[in-house]
Amino acid sequence: MPIYSYELIAGECKICGGQFDLRRPLDRPALTDCPLCRKPVRKVVAQVNTPKLLKPIAPSAAKNAGFKIYQKRDQGVYEAL
Fold this sequence. Notes:
Layout: E1 2-8, E2 19-23, E3 41-48, H1 59-64, E4 70-72, E5 78-80
Antiparallel strand pairs: 1-2, 1-3, 4-5
């Protein structure tokens, strides 16, 4: 789910600070007004929220998931395991 940064189109605000971040699904419409101060805002895509792998995937788990495992042999030649 992407993280969107919203910023005020004009002026400043002491309540929201002029910008805020929200995690929203792609299919939801963009906000047109700040939920705190009700001033008009525009959307800027800041970053994408992706899951992090905490440990490397074992070759057997990768094979079970449907991936092919290759091992490097001589001078850039790869062989399927």
